[in-house]
Amino acid sequence: MTTRALDDVRVLELGQVYNAPYCGLLLAAQGADVIKVEPPGGEIIRRPAVSPGGASYSFLMLNADKRGVTLDLKKPEGRELFLRLVEKADVVLENFSEGALARLGLAYDVLAACNPRIVLASGRGYRPGSPYESFAAMDFTIQAISGHMAITGFPDSPPVKAGATFCDMLGATHLFAAILLALRERERTGRGRALEVAMLDATFPSLMSYASPYLETGNDPGRVGNRHAVPGSAPYGSFPTKDGWVAIMCVTDEHWASFCEVCPDPLLADDESLRRMPNRGPRRDWIEERVAAWTRDLPRVELLDLLVPKGIPCAPVRSLGEALDDPYNVAQGLLRPVAVEGRGEVRVLGSPIRLEDEVSTPRRPPPRLGEHNREVYGGLLGLADDELERLVRGGVL
Amino acid sequence: MTTRALDDVRVLELGQVYNAPYCGLLLAAQGADVIKVEPPGGEIIRRPAVSPGGASYSFLMLNADKRGVTLDLKKPEGRELFLRLVEKADVVLENFSEGALARLGLAYDVLAACNPRIVLASGRGYRPGSPYESFAAMDFTIQAISGHMAITGFPDSPPVKAGATFCDMLGATHLFAAILLALRERERTGRGRALEVAMLDATFPSLMSYASPYLETGNDPGRVGNRHAVPGSAPYGSFPTKDGWVAIMCVTDEHWASFCEVCPDPLLADDESLRRMPNRGPRRDWIEERVAAWTRDLPRVELLDLLVPKGIPCAPVRSLGEALDDPYNVAQGLLRPVAVEGRGEVRVLGSPIRLEDEVSTPRRPPPRLGEHNREVYGGLLGLADDELERLVRGGVL
């Protein structure tokens, strides 16, 4: 058993849905002791009443390698127990709505009074103090307000969200990095801090391809389907083959030259003016029609076999099933099979950050509701069994 | 001047396009000395020949707060100078294609022989050793192969990419966190390490909403436009108003109850069976038609004023211009105005991670090509002016 970068870090995760739970997953994957603290009924996406074995598949995917306890923070005894846990922890991680923690009497200054080394990390939709502070936020609403829906889809269709929950995940990953920064700072100062990462902020840089022309010229490129926001790159898009689509992009003159070596269309290869990118932009409709006329009759794999060795950026447009059933995912530890009581084998998420050469199996399956109550409240805080029973009866755990 | 978490870290950034440059931006924002090392002609998206002032707007947006030097790594003297910089650095950050650094004679073992504390951080499309190792990768091709295009768009349209370059940015943010982990580990071991983050891996968790039903049931939900992948949540979607769309999502029974308090349609509010989520799913077409019939006649702001105080997740579907021109961006330091020679005022990106209360202005504008050659090669490595001139003449710088 090798040591890992966060072996000495304990996290209390008050996470719900995707944002903070994914951040907790990233922490746990590096060896942190992540204790997921759920209300006695379970966090929102656990949905114990309607899920076989007492937990939804989404919950299971995001919460392996964590310990799980229950606690009603709205009860005075629950709050008190939480503060005793804070004394033994390094990080409190939460993504309640703005102000919720303070209303529970658990604002940062209260936590810091218990443990000045504590880092309070909050995933938010928007920055506190901003005009949107009071907006309840989830991935979809951030895609809407951020401008990302406006730049997604075909020109003749309404704005559409990405299927990817990239706002949650970008928020969570920036939050993870912010926690690591705060732990580094703590080594120097001896003190923790409160920090927030807003999903709106975390997704702002992903507007780049549209923001740069807009800020430079004031012109909105509009929705462009699978094309490049700025005309110039061609071919750039999703091209039909005999058995599915292939994404192809020529964004340099070198890509184009390589493309012409494999594409047998003399109207493309022999046209000297097309060898310079500024001349391809105005003719991209025509170029891409010619390209499609070629790709249409090829099997997808054959087209890729021609393009890949030439260094032209390309990839199959895979279906969800193709993408998920790819052995790559298990081989790289992105999906990890684990036995879950009442469920059989479940494939849970792993971290994209893998510092070891070898892929590891989950150290523990996702926790059942309150599974580690005795281990944590007994072992860590020293509560006796009869005391635990009393707390369960009183609805505190 | 306060100290910052990465004040003591020096980074050599061999970044191009968005991925590693965004990671470099995140490092620089925390005080790291990021030295961007470009080939003598500039990195790919600088495009000096066709850009006013010698740099494209995209390049400017991503590279403030960095120093910039030129260096031809393909020349023996260039490689040698780079290794002398490695001796003075903590991190080498790159996103060349797989194997490129090794072909330059700059594999990790060579760097570590110069400086065993060096961290080599590589942004990749795919994991080295995987079946896709040889695929040239960019954001668009990762959206294609990852399955994200297949889950984006309307059911009757082909797969479409998100306008967001979320694959680049998720790759970069995970890479940033991985660097922080390696620096933490180095404090214990005294040694750096090589690490890679693949964009395909970094975007995998964002499949969550579609992966969980697929892995649980084997059924592909298909493209669902702005709806939820799994029927049950209703209303959930983008609803028309008098002056634009509004995203609304009721994903709990509490949301629904609150919604019925503001939506005046008695057919919704008075139907007791609809109060439980499992009963709303099968009737979502009808529910959402009723909702749209109500929202259609309201101004967007009025609808939001009704929904927001009720805690119902909602947001305007903003245009690109609305999103970019929002004063929020400058107030939160996401866009930072800075004077750039030959360009006037340019708005460059800031980091979504802000540990200070106050928004800071850029410490320095994006570097001109080779702007800090003398400062870095002279100041850091002690090269004399005539030696620098000789290197410029020889095309090494």
Structure overview:
The structure is a homodimer of 397-residue chains. By secondary structure, chain A is α/β, with parallel strands linked by helices. Chain A has 2 domains: 10-204 and 326-393, Crotonobetainyl-coa:carnitine coa-transferase, domain 1 (Rossmann fold, 3-Layer(aba) Sandwich), CATH 3.40.50; 236-317, formyl-coa transferase, domain 3 (2-Layer Sandwich). Chain A has 18 helices and 11 strands. The first copy, chain A, has helices spanning 19-29, 57-62, 76-87, 100-103, 108-114, 139-145, 166-189, 199-203, 208-217, 253-262, 266-269, 277-280, 284-295, 300-307, 320-325, 327-331, 373-380, 385-393; strands at residues 10-14, 33-38, 67-70, 91-94, 119-124, 194-198, 236-241, 244-249, 314-316, 335-340, 344-349. In chain A, the strands form 3 sheets. A 6-stranded parallel sheet of chain A has the order 3-2-1-4-5-6, with helices on both faces. In chain A, a hairpin with a 2-residue loop joins β7 (236-241) and β8. Chain A is elongated and about 85 Å long. Chain A starts with 9 loop residues before the first strand and ends with a helix. At the A-B interface, α1, α2, α6, α7 and β6 of A face α1, α2, α6, α7 and β6 of B.
